[in-house]
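Backbones bend. To wit:
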Amino acid sequence: MIITIIGIGLIGGSLALSLKQNNYASWVLGVDQNPVHGERAVELGIVDEVVSFDEGIAKADVVIIAVPVNAIVQILPRVLDRVDRQIVIDVGSTKESIVNSVLRHAKRGRFVATHPMAGTEYSGPEAAISDLFTGKCTVLVDKENSDEDALSEIQRLYQSLSMNIVYHQSHEHDIHTAYISHISHISSFALALTVLEKEKNEKRIFELAGGGFSSTVRLAKSSPDTWVPIFEQNRDYVLDVLDEHINTISQFRTLLIKKDFESFYKLIQQANQIRRIVK
């Protein structure tokens, strides 16, 4: 099985490492517009060879598009223009815009829209981790639009990574990720900006920063190259969630102003119910 990874960053690089180590892939080709990334990926053993866009597609059994979501919309039709027997997947965090970009493409059946729900706040080939996907969830989207053999093979690919597979429609996926992923990043970015603004006047503020603060702002280290396109493509759903989030924060603020700590207590008790979902 020859795999071509277009975009050798955290997700693409981690897939390459994992699929080589579990023997799903016999050879991994890398395609990246940044030559430094390509060279580094070869040095780190992430890919076996860096090739051109056309060569990578022609030689592959499976093509994995692992670039920012705005670039996926541009690249995916070009990839499908060049495929015959090959199977193509993307790993983007949004789905509706991506699947709509090839909805009427003649080779639409060779494409399986996917979103492996895993990641870190780091980027680039150095961020690749071989066990990033183990035990995590991956979403296969609009599976009825993919050829049966393509869907079956991609199920096998993700099963080889020990991932749990679920199936969504594209709009459902985008609504759910707005709640569980995209709003978390906005909150983390906002908190980091708030603290950095305060730190200008109080230089010793970070002396008190412990594990709780670090985990809360961890996502604020994430690349804007990755996340601005996600917010752009999922704008309407993210706005919906953000409005709800702002209303909840305003509720806490009002209770503090009123010194209504009994109601504050009850809100925290309600929040504790998240334990039923997140262990």
